Amino acid sequence: YTNGSVYSYETVLTGIGDDYTYYFEARDSKYSPATGLPTAEQNGPVVLNSSQATIPIGDSSPITFNTTDVVMDFSDSPGGSVTVINYEKVSQKCDTLALNTYWDITSDMSNGTFLLDLELSYSENDLTAGLKEDMLVPAFYDTTQMKWVLLKDYTRDITANTVTVHNLDHFTEFTLGDQSIFIPLDTIDSLMLSIVDDDLNLRWNNVQAATIYDIFRDTDPYFIADTVYKNVSDTFFTDIGIAADESVDYYYQVRPGNALHNGSVSPSYGLYHLRLSKGFNMVSIPVLSRFNVLDSLFCTQLTGASSPTESDRLYHYNGSYYLDAWKYNGDNKWYGSLKGIDPDKGYWIELKENSPDSVLTFTGKVALGPRTIPLIAGWNMIGSSYPRSVLLEESNIIESGFTGASSPTESDRLYNFYNDIYFDSWLYAPSLTFYGTLTGFEPGKGYWVNLVEGHDSFTWNYILPEVNNKIANNSTAYSATIQKNKSKNKKGNTTVKDKNGLSKSRKFKNKETENSTIKKRLMKKMSERLEEL
After folding, report:
1. In angstroms, rounded to a whole number, what is the distance separating the alpha carbons of residues 511 and 495?
2. SS3 for 315?
3. In the beta sheet, which residues pair with residue 111?
4. For the purposes of burial, counting CB atoms within 10 Å of the CB of 152, is it exposed (0-12), middle (13-18) or buried (19 or more)?
């Protein structure tokens, strides 16, 4: 099908010279038939010849299957019958570098109970363009893997126009062809993505014996490649105009193939749009870019100036002090102690007042995980390399060593700064439950992880759950279930309690007061450290 779906139906055609016509009709889930007439007619295999013989028990003299160009020499057999049908080549199963014919051999003897030499004969007319006699090797069709597999124990006689397979113990379909089309196709290890104007260019390495490359595209970074978007014969593809829409992120996989079989799909690669506003943006990059140096990663996407105080700036806190970089508009290069952007780390991007709100575009590989993130006692500026949201409870941070307590001041804490508001969460130790307005790690955002004094450093084995629940927008702090339990306290403040009787508002007067308190405290710490620069 044009959408990449594959359906199969098999039957044995034994009438020599007879014509068969099959039609396939789609039906919906209620078994209602499709409308209209068949639109894609395709010729099936042509039965050239067929022959049947009885095989005696044990060792036997060579048996010729008349009209099918097949001779079998059994060295061991339980006895039974064998049928050979000679078909004209079918495009779905053979390639231009294979014979115009193949043999389907069946028997009432079970595979593995016999042993024989199988001689396959061909004529000059069976050779396709580009296929030479001294290139011919035998292969069988593996119905489990749905591909042709090379047979290695054989002899070739170009004078007699025969290829003989030795010590064969099974029957299936057989053909002859160039070795290159029977070898397994390598997987494309990496895609190179680049944006030129509004077009996205994809390039990949050439795969030996591949004659076509299927391209899969989806908005889900972890999609299953089951619907072909485009296919090309080259090792590059341009998705025209796709980068113009900054509201949609696209991800790609590429699969090599030929007319005999397909290889495995490549890892997923994509482009991610990161939206920034004036002022401080706490961010991370949720794809694994080929480049991490600032000049290559940002190019012309941020605004430079003649001095660092007027330029857009980048900051990262390394656990002891801030590293920073600014862009000089004289040569469009970045200067400062911060040299690159690394996976799993968080950063401040400061857009000056004279800079426009920006949408940065990054390309790279989709991380599968787990990600290993070292966290030290004190303040850690981290990010999520996954382009999908992960709930705190599903991130494996508790199991890795994140330590809770009976009060927020004694627990390790998580913070995110977004839209001029700090969101945070802490771990209530008795029930190992997170409380706060921060519910998970989201792509494109940066985070503070604060391990309080007396708690051990640890390495966070950050996993990506197979099933990810959508994280509520930060503007929606409480779930519908929790909202049912909210009540007004005497001061008129909203208080939300769980089964432990613990207030989710943590005794702040209200949400605005809470955010203001957190923001002032963390912004003070940030200002103190920025002064070190």
Report:
1. 10
2. strand
3. none
4. exposed
Give the strand pairing for 63-65 and 70-76.
antiparallel
Half-sphere CA count of 368, side-chain side, radius 13 A: 5
Looking at residue 235, what DSSP letter applies? Answer: S
CA 102 to chain centre: 36
Query: Of 332, 281, 329, 326, which is closest to residue 305 (Cα–Cα)?
Result: 329
Alpha-carbon gap, residue 391 to 171, rounded angstroms: 53
Sheet holding 47-55, edge to edge: 47-55, 80-88, 101-107, 173-178, 136-142, 147-150
Query: What are the pLDDT digits (tens) for 195-207?
Result: 999 999 999 999 9
Q: Using CA atoms, how far apart are residues 464 and 438, in angstroms rounded to an integer? A: 18
d(CA 165, CA 171): 12
Q: Which of 261, 244, 162 is nearest to 200 (CA)?
A: 244
Least confident interval from 101-115, 126-140, 369-383: 126-140
Closest CA to 396 of 368, 373, 424: 373
With 0-12 / 13-18 / 19 or more C-beta atoms within 10 angstroms meaning exposed / middle / buried, residue 304 is buried
- Residue 347 identity: Y
d(CA 420, CA 276): 12
pTM above 0.70, yes or no: no
Instruction: Give whole-number Cα distances, 44 to 16, 63, 525, in Å.
Output: 14, 30, 74
Report pLDDT digits (tens) over 358-404: 899 999 999 998 999 999 999 999 999 999 999 999 999 999 999 99
Token pair 């809470």: residue: 514
Q: How far is C-alpha 498 from the chain's CA centre?
A: 39
Instruction: For residue 85, give both structure tokens.
Output: 């049908």
Q: 414: which 2 tokens?
A: 């998580």
Instruction: Judge whether 147 and 261 are in contact, CB under 8 Å.
Output: yes
Please state, as a whole number, how many other Cβ atoms lie within 10 Å of the Cβ of residue 222.
15
C-alpha to C-alpha distance for 93 and 296, rounded to whole angstroms: 45
With tokens 């508002």, the residue in question is: 505
Is 69 in a helix, a strand, or coil?
coil
Closest C-alpha among 311, 298, 304, 302 to residue 340: 298
In terms of Cα–Cα distance, which of 294, 343, 297, 346 is closest to 318? 346
Q: What are the b/e assignments for 267-278, b being 16+ CB within 10 Å?
A: bbbbbbebebee
